[in-house]
Structures are given as structure tokens and as C-alpha cells.
Write a structure and sequence with these properties.
Elements (H helix, E strand, L loop, with lengths): L27 H5 L5 E8 L11 H22 L3 E10 L8 E13 L11 H6 L10 E10 L11 E6 L2 H12 L13 E7 L3 H4 L7 E6 L5 H9 L8 E7 L2 E6 L3 H13 L1 H7 E5 L5 E4 L7 H4 L4 E10 L8 E11 L4
Antiparallel strand pairs: 1-13, 2-5, 2-12, 3-11, 3-13, 4-6, 4-12, 7-9, 7-10, 8-9
Length: 343
């Protein structure tokens, strides 16, 4: 059978049909970044996590950021011991500059749990007779953490070295200088050290982020229900589109709402209506500057500094009184990275 061309044919005889892809393929940087680099976020709980081996640029970066999380976990463990200095020296793998362009600390968040009964304030009997204090962060006077490159002679092991000592004259003078305004910080590209965070109780609002939405914490009483607790809020039909983030750290659910008065009122209404279900999962409370410290960390690129040597040194300077008996520090550190993945 012979096929003939008709005058109504869309494609003329003798021409080829070419179908072009209407959607232009995107690079990783265009889809997940700023058009030039891929932008990724790493959120690490403050815990004594194992720092494993590495075989790729991403694993090398996780090794480094894991060391930062370990340091801040030890800061929490050393609170209440008076004036203390902690030093963490960590060997550095060779970082491929062709892949890794920026590493920045985006957020550092501390939270102090209440007692097992959910109590914050102690009765006068417990305060006077048992010497117990209210469960909040008011026992902290000053904290600061400094980052600097460190030259290691022995590079056969990748195990971090942690040292702890009482903070004496010179070190304590350095801590105080950070809050007097007479400490000079060089630009990122020229810096030989960098202050990652600082906090002083007397002027706490100065060193904390300006809040853009209410944050609530659900302390899950039964660890087996931690996942169920997160699903309750994330999947609740009347709370869709209400959250900036919902993070589960151990048995604490950190719920951050969008900055909207109607969203806040709706959330409070749901919490009230669903009080029995929530009580079965744990104790919920709203963050205050006494119970949650959302530090205003400098948004600086750490990569030029940590690339200067085969090791890094983190020094923490802590001036804190006796901690509450039930003290448990929870929190997380969030990093933002820019990568040149080439695809």
C-alpha cells in the first residue's frame, strides 16, 4: 500500500520531524543553589557522635562539622564547673578547593530541659534546704568560642584531642576583652582566628537572634513515641503550612512556627483542643530567653581559615556557676555549605 501526502499534512513530505525538549535541563547549582554553586544545609545535634572515616569531599566536610558539634556538646558538659577553658584539636583532611567553596555556621541553638515533671521553678523549700535552682540558663555568665588553624606534627591518627583546664588570668582577660569591644577581628580572607559565638547573661538580647516566630518544645516522655510526636504536628490537617521547621533531637521536638499572628493563635488553639493527646506524648512549652538560646552567630566563611593548616583548634571559654540538678543541654548546630559539583 502506497502512502500519499495530503495538503492537510502538518509535516511536509521529505521533511524530518524534530521534537525539542521544552524543559531545559538544570544543573545542580541551578536547582539546589544560587546558579553558580550548590547550596546544602547540614543540621547536627550536639552529641558525642563518632567521627568516622571519609572517602569523598562530602564525607570530609561531615568529619569537620562533626568536630564542631562534639565541641559544643563538651561545652554543655563543662558548664557549672566555674571558669573553664576547653580546647579541641582536630586533624584536618586535605580539603579539595575545587569542590568546597564555603562552609558557614548558620545557626547555633541551645535548649535546657525542665525536670522530669516538667517543672521550671523550684519551691523555696528546695531552694533553701536542698540548694536547688530554677531550671534555666541564668547560671551562665559568659561563653565564647574561638576557631584557629593548628599545625600538627603527628598526622598518623585522625582522633581529636580534647583538653580541659581552669581558666586563669590571661585566658580570663581574653574572655572579658571580647565583651569590652576592644578585640579586633580581621576580614575573613586575612583572619588568623575567628570568634564563632559569644554570650553574656547581663546583655543576653545583644547576643541572641531577633525572633521571627514562636518556638515551642515538646519533651517526649516516652522515647518510643518520639516519631509519633513529630508526625502528630507535621501531619495535622489544621497545621499545614504553619512551620518554619520541626526538628526531633533525641527526645525533644523543636517546633518553630512561621512569623504570623494568625498561625500562632491557630497553633495555640490546636494545642488547647488536643491537650490530652499532646499530654500523652510529653510536656510542651514555649521557648523564652531563659530556656532557649538561639545565638546570633557571625555568618562568615570558615573555609579560608580552616584550609591554612593540617589541623584546627577550637577554644571554648566558659564562666558559669552551679548548674541545676536536672541540667541536660540539648541543641543543634546548622551549617550552610557551597559546593562546586560540576554537574
Amino acid at each position: 500500500m502506497e502512502l500519499k501526502c495530503s495538503s492537510s499534512s502538518i509535516i511536509k513530505c521529505g521533511q524530518k520531524s524534530v521534537i525539542e525538549n521544552a524543559t531545559k535541563p538544570q544543573t545542580t547549582a541551578e536547582r539546589y543553589g544560587d546558579g553558580t554553586y550548590s547550596v546544602h544545609t547540614l543540621v547536627l545535634p550536639l552529641s558525642d557522635q563518632t567521627i568516622g572515616s571519609f572517602n569523598s569531599p562530602l564525607e570530609k566536610m561531615s568529619y569537620i562539622t562533626g568536630g564542631f558539634a562534639k565541641m559544643f556538646m563538651n561545652v554543655g558538659a563543662s558548664m557549672g564547673m566555674g571558669k573553664m577553658q576547653l580546647s579541641l584539636i582536630q586533624p584536618m583532611p586535605k580539603l579539595p578547593a575545587e569542590y568546597i567553596k564555603e562552609i558557614r555556621i548558620k545557626r547555633l541553638f541551645f535548649y535546657i530541659e525542665p525536670t522530669q515533671e516538667g517543672a521550671r521553678e523550684q519551691s523555696w523549700v528546695k531552694r533553701i534546704l536542698k540548694g536547688r535552682d530554677d531550671v534555666n540558663f541564668e547560671f551562665i555568665d559568659k561563653i565564647a568560642v574561638k576557631l584557629s588553624p593548628h599545625k600538627l606534627e603527628n598526622t598518623e591518627t585522625w582522633t581529636p584531642i580534647l583538653a580541659q583546664q581552669e581558666m586563669l588570668g590571661h585566658e580570663y582577660d581574653f574572655l572579658k576583652s571580647l565583651f569590652r569591644g576592644d578585640y579586633f577581628e580581621a576580614p575573613e580572607a586575612e583572619a588568623r582566628e575567628m570568634i564563632l559565638m559569644k554570650y553574656e547573661e547581663d546583655e543576653k538580647e545583644r547576643y541572641l537572634k531577633k525572633k521571627t516566630g514562636k518556638t515551642h518544645i515538646l519533651n517526649v516522655t516516652n522515647p518510643k513515641k518520639a516519631g509519633q510526636a513529630r508526625r502528630f504536628f507535621v501531619d495535622h490537617p489544621k497545621l499545614k503550612g504553619s512551620f518554619k521547621s520541626v526538628l526531633l533531637l533525641n527526645n525533644s521536638l523543636i517546633i518553630e512556627l512561621l512569623n504570623d499572628r494568625i498561625i500562632e493563635e491557630n497553633f495555640n488553639t490546636i494545642v488547647s483542643l488536643e491537650a490530652q493527646k499532646i499530654q500523652d506524648l510529653g510536656n510542651i512549652e514555649q521557648c523564652t530567653v531563659a530556656t532557649c538560646l538561639d545565638f546570633d552567630v557571625p555568618y562568615k566563611n570558615l573555609f579560608p581559615l580552616i584550609s591554612k593548616s593540617n589541623g584546627i583548634r577550637l577554644d571554648a571559654y566558659i564562666d558559669a556557676d552551679k548548674v541545676p540538678d536536672s541540667f541536660q543541654l540539648k541543641g543543634y548546630i546548622e551549617f550552610e555549605t557551597k559546593l562546586n559539583l560540576g554537574f
